[in-house]
Structures are given as structure tokens and as C-alpha cells.
Specification:
The complex is a heterodimer. Chain A is mostly helical. Chain A has helices spanning 2-58, 74-83, 95-111, 130-138, 141-151, 155-186, 191-197, 207-210, 212-225, 250-275, 289-294, 299-325, 333-360. In chain A, helix 6 (155-186) runs antiparallel to helix 9 (212-225). The radius of gyration of chain A is 24 Å and the shape is globular. Chain B contains 16 helices and eight strands. In chain B, the strands form three sheets. Chain B has a three-stranded antiparallel sheet with strand order 1-2-3. In chain B, strands 6-7-8 form a three-stranded antiparallel sheet. Chain B has a two-stranded antiparallel ribbon with strand order 4-5.
């Protein structure tokens, strides 16, 4: 009898747990996504602060200093201000295209974050086609820009949107070819495998040394994809007329702003993953033997170190695009397209050829 | 468009897009309106529309004496203010055959050349900002602030000085100003080398600027251009050497000129002019003589005998005379080499304190005429480069 009641109790509790388990299972899917989005948002805030401080340093002035200590909450303050502004629609523009445009630009960039690894098992989805997912989905962003340019019923916005689309399309091909060379080197398109392939010889195992030309082309193409100076004709067309962001106000304008920095962050993270060794500490073997031990330690400490290393590499690399933006002048549209098609494309093809021949000779 | 033949090429290829770069635009060229006809990225035509800053300066001059008019003239070209003042007092000086003391002449030259440097600096900032490099804009203001400090110490105002008087300058230089100015010259030479390193050999800059907006030598003379636009097209014409005005002949300096006539040549001419100005300032500071800073004799009234205005109090102590100078019934054209070109005044005097006609020949207005010609086969992005290299300021274009 006692066994019967305990059995019955066990069966009852088991069924309750079962349904709770299902609920937990569903919630548990959303928790990593939520954590990643939170991390991205904080990362964006850091980038905005970093850009303003670096540009202030270059221009011999002080950056933000009133919003939060050292001005770190400035981006939040700007976002909150934009939330409170009036949401304008152009009078005869296409309302649906106008509203959806910025969202498409943001969504396509956010989706690419799912394949970035912060540790061996710290990636949202370890797809076999990891890196290729980023390239494919980020090609949707120019459609968003075209939609906003066209839906604004404004000649300048339309011109800006057209230029943005032309620019993005031209620079995707050298980007893809560089990524293809990396995949050849690592025998896989999965981001985790690419990082693993770079972990063998510490500092000298980085793809940066095996693909120097590819790195430079990737850097230039990603700057062009993010529409940052020296390639920011669609955006800071404001100097001449005004770009595709003219008719936007309030939080939709904030969405464009965020989309620009999201794009920059994901490009820098991909540079870290593809060329700079990802989450590996990459200190040469002769440095400190204890750290060599730590490299193999799993658990919480190891993964924290992994995330930390990735972020440090990304933000150190981010210094270069930000400095480039405030130093170099802008390229004219036809010079920009010339650079993409006539200069970068042949060189990246040559890089691919070189990589392939080295692989064939098994070097 | 064409319902009869659906297989034809659509007729939209023939429609040119007319874009209005209105008087409000974030580029810092003042209130100039350009109506640009575009075919895709190429510019077909460009029509400038002026008048948004017209303030009736020439009409106002007909009702003011020279001393009363001096605060107005700095508002023509508000970046190179000393030149406008210089030309306002040069006219009556020539009409009345008034001698300017040597020290006053040297002080004038120093102020004029400092103003030339300031004007070229503030040309460089927006020019680079239009091309896309936003950082030199901050660097030039750093140097321009130093010039402002020098001006404020000598004249009391940072920009709209009201410093020149008929027969000299309003007051002498304060004690220690010359040393400060020499320090500025030394510091500025390092600044100009910084610009050279940052800008002149930058390949992106050269691609944007080389071969853009070419003005031939004959074309420059026919359009009546002046200043750096003329000198960049191969004509060695500098009014400081041609007219021998003030004391420029006593200094050792060269005319800066280039041959190509594109925007890069104009850029190089202006940078070179800044370096030459520093040379002139250094020579003037080292050779400045003592003596009076203003020819106070002209304040005499000699029509009536024993006028109370000729008393000691009115001439030499605080009370300055008014009304002052009487313009004789003659006409005169006087010109000066402003940083933007040849600034001229055509002055018809009436036998009274007010001029009968005060015609201003602004360099920006005359130089701007060539803009539609230059942008005809260029891309949209080149309009701002060419406009920037012409170096206009709407205050004097519209007056």
C-alpha cells in the first residue's frame, strides 16, 4: 500500500514536472537570446561612448562628460531624447515603406549576431554555414535603405538610398571572397571551427598572418558595408544635400543610428573571429607557463576569459575604424565604385587563388 | 508614358532631375541657393540664386560719414575684416592726399596679413569638411583663436574691429604685443606643416581635388577672376606687387602661383599665401619704426577760421571731432588684394561728409560667376568641392 501511494505520488509529481519542464524548455530557449541582445545593447553603448571620446581626442576637445560618470550614459540619453520626439511622416511618402525601412536594416544585422562565438560552446547557434549566414543576411540591409529612401518622397533621400544600395552591393563580393579564403584555410564555414583552426600556434596561428591581403581587403570592404567614412556618401551626403535619413525623426532615426553601430560591431566581431583568433588568449608559449594552463581550463573561469578576450580584441580593433573615420576625407561615388569593382575584386580573387594553390600544395 | 509602344525604352531616361540645394544647407557656405539639373550623378547645369543676405550696404553708405560707416564694412567679408576696413579708409586717403605715418603703415600691414591668414584658415576648414574630413575644421579654429586673441588685445574686438582710421589706425599696439605676435608666427609655421602632412599628400584628397574645376588662363582673365583663382591658373598677378600700396615693397616675399588651374592648384596657392604672410609679418614686426600711429592733422577744419573744433581739447585729448572728413567732388577707384580676390571701391564724392555713390566690387561676387561653367560636366559631389575652392562668402557677394 505504501509503495502504491508513493508510486502514485511519484507519478503525480512526475506529470507536474513534465509540463513545467516543457514550459521551462520553451523559456530556456529565449534566455540566451535575451542575454545576447542585452550584451549587444551594452556593446553598442560602449561603442558610441568610445567613438565620441576618440573623436574628441583627435579633434582636441572633450567628449561627453555630463551624462553619467565620464559620459558613459550619453548614448542612453540620446536614445531617450529621440524617443520623446514627434514621429513625422512625409506628406506624400509611402507610409508602409517608410516605417518598415529602418526596421529591416536593424533586423538583418541583429540576426547575424547569432553565429558569433564567444567561447567553445558560447555561440547562439553553431551552424555549419555560420559565416555565410552573416554575409547572406547582411545583404538584406540595403533593401531597407532603398525602402526608406524611396518612401521619403524626397529627391535627396532617393539619391542617398540608391547610392547606399549600389555601394553595399559592390563591396559584398570582395567581402565574400575574403571569407571564402578563410573557410578554405579552416576547412569549414562554421565560426567555431574557424576559431579552433587558429588556436594551434598561439599568436602566430592567427589568420591575420596567413591572409594579410585578405585582412586588408576585408577591412576596407567592411568599412564600405557599414557606410562609414571614407565610404559614407549615402549617410553624410548631408554635407551636400541630405542622405536617406533626412525625413526621419524620433526613434526611427534612432533605429538608423543603432543599425549603423550594430553593423560596425558585428563587422568588428567577425574580424576578431576570422582573423584575430576569436576567444583564444593567443599569448606565445614562451610567455607565462601558468597562463598556458589556464587556456585549457573550462568551467566558468575559462568561459569568462573567453568572452573577455573576444571583447578586448574587438574593441582594440574598433580603434582603427573610428580613427579612420575622423582622419580621412570621403570618396566620391564613382571613385568608390571604381575601388570596389576594379581594385578590390581582382585582388580578392587573386588572394583566393593564392590560398587555393597553397592549400593544394598542403602548406 | 507611351501606351502605343510598350516595347520601347521607357521615356524616363530623358527627364532630368532638378534638385534645389537651398539657402539652408548644412554645408558652411552661407545662404546661397543652387538649382542643379542632374542626369543621374552628372550635373547638366547649375543656377546660383543670390540675394538672401542683401542688406543694402551701398545705399546705407550714401548716408553715413566714413567714420560712421566703418562698423558696417566689416560685415561684408566677416572673415577677413581688416581688408574691408583698409579699403574704406584708403579711398578718402587717396582723395585727400593724406599721408599715413610709417608706423601706422607697418601696423596696417601686420593686421592685414594676420587677417589674410585668418581668412585662409577659415576657408580651409569648410573646404575639408565638404570633402569629408571633419577634423581639420577643429584644427583651424585652434589657430584662428590665437589670431582672435591678438586682435582682441590690439583692437578690443575679436572679429569686427573698427580699427582703421583715415590717416592711420585707431590706437597703438599694446606693450608686449609684438613678442606675442612673433610667438604666434613661429607656432603657426608648425601648424601649416601639420596641414601639409595631413592633407596635401593624402591620396583620397588628391583624387577628390585634382583635375576638378579647371580654369584656363585665358578663361580666368576673360571672366574677370582675381585673387587665388587667377594665380592658380598661371597668371602672376598680385595687387600688392602691382599697385605698390602701403609699404609692401619694403619686404621680401614672393607671389604664390600655380599653373594647372584646378582645385588642387587653388588649395596650394592659398597654403603658400599663408606661409608668405607669415614671412611678411615677421619682417614687419622686426622692422617696425616708432612714430605716430595716426595722422591727426586731417582732423582740422580749415574752412572756418578759429573753429572751435580746432581747439586743443577737440584734437588731442578725449573729444574726437565729428563730422570729420569731407569728400571732395571727385571719383576714384581704389583696390586692395583681399584673400578672396580684388576688393575694390568706386567712390564718387560730393562736397560733403557723405559719399554720393559707394560701389563695392566684391571678389566673391565676380568669382562666383564662373561656377555654372565649371560644374557642367562634373559629378554631384564635385559641386561642393568647386564651390569651396572658389572661396566665397555671402556677406560680400550679397552685400
Amino acid at each position: 500500500m505504501i509503495i502504491d501511494t508513493t508510486e502514485i505520488q511519484a507519478i503525480n509529481s512526475f506529470s507536474r514536472l513534465e509540463s513545467l519542464n516543457e514550459v521551462y524548455g520553451i523559456i530556456w530557449v529565449f534566455v540566451p537570446i535575451f542575454i545576447l541582445v542585452l550584451g549587444i545593447t551594452i556593446g553598442i553603448l560602449v561603442i558610441v561612448w568610445l567613438e565620441r571620446e576618440i573623436s574628441a581626442g583627435i579633434q582636441q576637445r572633450i567628449g561627453p562628460e555630463y551624462a553619467g560618470p565620464l559620459g558613459v550614459l550619453q548614448a542612453l540619453a540620446d536614445g531617450t531624447k529621440l524617443l520623446f520626439k514627434e514621429n513625422l511622416f512625409p506628406s506624400r511618402g509611402d507610409i508602409r515603406l517608410f516605417s518598415i525601412g529602418p526596421s529591416i536594416a536593424v533586423i538583418s544585422t541583429l540576426l547575424s549576431y547569432s553565429v558569433i562565438p564567444f567561447g567553445y560552446h558560447l555561440v547562439l547557434t553553431d551552424l555549419n554555414i555560420g559565416v555565410f549566414l552573416w554575409i547572406a543576411i547582411s545583404s538584406i540591409a540595403p533593401i531597407g535603405l532603398l525602402m526608406s529612401g524611396y518612401g521619403s518622397n524626397n529627391k535627396y533621400s532617393f539619391l542617398g538610398g540608391l547610392r547606399a544600395a549600389a555601394q553595399s552591393i559592390s563591396y559584398e563580393i570582395p567581402l565574400t571572397l575574403c571569407v571564402l579564403s578563410i573557410s578554405l584555410l579552416s576547412n569549414s564555414s562554421s565560426t567555431v571551427d574557424i576559431v579552433e583552426a587558429q588556436s594551434k600556434s598561439g599568436f602566430w596561428g592567427w589568420n591575420l598572418w596567413r591572409q594579410p591581403i585578405g585582412f586588408i581587403i576585408f577591412f576596407i570592404s567592411s568599412l564600405a558595408e557599414c557606410e562609414r567614412l571614407p565610404f559614407d556618401l549615402p549617410e553624410a551626403e548631408e554635407e551636400l544635400v541630405a542622405g536617406y535619413q533626412t525625413e526621419y525623426s524620433g526613434i526611427k532615426f534612432g533605429l538608423f543610428y543603432i543599425a549603423s553601430y550594430l553593423n560596425l560591431l558585428v563587422s568588428s566581431l567577425f574580424v576578431t573571429v576570422l582573423y584575430l583568433g576569436g576567444w583564444n588568449i593567443s599569448i606565445p608559449y614562451i610567455f607565462v607557463p601558468e597562463l598556458f594552463e589556464i587556456k585549457k581550463i573550462g568551467g566558468v573561469f575559462g568561459t569568462t576569459i573567453g568572452i573577455f578576450i573576444t571583447l578586448v580584441k574587438t574593441y582594440l580593433f574598433l580603434f582603427i575604424p573610428i580613427t579612420t573615420r575622423w582622419t580621412l576625407p570621403r570618396l566620391r561615388m564613382d571613385q568608390l565604385l571604381n575601388l570596389g569593382w576594379k581594385f578590390l575584386l581582382p585582388i580578392s580573387l587573386g588572394n583566393l587563388l593564392l590560398t587555393t594553390s597553397f592549400q593544394l600544395l598542403s602548406l | 508614358m507611351d501606351q502605343g509602344n510598350p516595347m520601347n525604352v521607357p521615356a524616363t531616361r530623358k527627364d532630368l532631375m532638378i534638385v534645389n540645394m537651398g539657402p539652408h544647407h548644412p554645408s558652411m557656405h552661407g545662404v546661397l541657393r543652387l538649382i542643379v539639373t542632374l542626369d543621374g550623378e552628372d550635373v547638366i547645369d547649375c543656377e546660383p540664386i543670390l540675394g538672401y543676405l542683401h542688406r543694402g550696404m551701398e545705399k546705407i553708405a550714401e548716408n553715413r560719414t566714413i567714420i560712421q560707416y566703418l562698423p558696417y564694412v566689416t560685415r561684408w567679408d566677416y572673415l577677413a575684416t581688416m581688408f574691408t576696413e583698409a579699403i574704406t579708409v584708403n579711398g578718402p586717403e587717396l582723395l585727400g592726399n593724406i599721408q599715413v605715418p610709417k608706423r601706422a603703415g607697418y601696423i596696417r600691414i601686420i593686421m592685414l596679413e594676420l587677417s589674410r591668414i585668418a581668412s585662409h584658415l577659415l576657408w580651409l576648414g569648410p573646404f575639408m569638411a565638404d570633402i569629408g574630413a571633419q577634423t581639420p575644421f577643429f584644427y583651424i579654429f585652434r589657430e584662428r583663436e590665437l589670431v582672435y586673441d591678438l586682435f582682441e588685445a590690439a583692437t578690443g574686438m575679436r572679429m569686427m574691429h573698427n580699427f582703421f582710421r583715415i590717416g592711420g589706425v585707431a590706437s597703438d599696439l599694446p606693450h608686449g604685443w609684438i613678442d606675442k605676435c612673433l610667438d604666434f608666427c613661429d607656432y603657426f609655421l608648425t601648424g601649416v606643416t601639420e596641414y601639409q602632412k595631413l592633407i596635401t599628400r593624402n591620396p583620397i584628397f588628391l583624387e577628390r581635388v585634382e583635375g576638378v574645376g579647371i580654369v584656363g588662363t585665358e578663361e580666368a582673365k576673360n571672366w574677370g577672376l582675381s585673387g587665388p583663382m587667377l594665380r592658380a591658373s598661371g597668371v602672376q598677378w598680385d595687387l600688392r606687387k602691382v599697385d605698390h600700396y602701403e609699404c609692401y615693397d619694403e619686404f621680401d616675399w614672393e607671389i604664390q602661383w600655380q599653373k594647372e588651374g584646378d582645385s588642387l592648384a587653388r588649395y596650394l596657392v592659398r597654403i603658400g599665401e599663408m606661409m608668405e604672410s607669415i614671412k611678411i609679418i615677421q619682417q614687419a614686426l622686426e622692422g617696425i619704426p616708432g612714430g605716430p600711429y595716426e595722422n591727426l592733422e586731417i582732423r582740422r577744419f580749415d574752412r572756418e577760421r578759429d573753429s572751435e573744433w580746432n581747439d586743443f581739447e577737440y584734437r588731442f585729448i578725449s573729444k574726437k571731432t565729428s563730422p570729420t572728413f569731407e569728400l571732395p567732388k571727385q571719383e576714384l577707384y581704389v583696390r586692395v588684394e583681399a584673400p578672396k580676390g580684388e576688393l575694390g571701391i568706386f567712390l564718387i564724392g560730393d562736397q560733403s561728409g557723405f559719399p554720393w555713390r559707394w560701389k563695392i566690387r566684391p571678389p566673391g561676387f565676380i568669382n562666383l560667376q564662373i561656377l555654372p561653367e565649371l560644374v557642367k560636366r562634373m559629378k554631384l559631389a564635385d559641386i561642393m568641392t568647386i564651390l569651396g575652392s572658389i572661396d566665397i562668402i555671402m556677406g560680400e557677394v550679397d552685400r
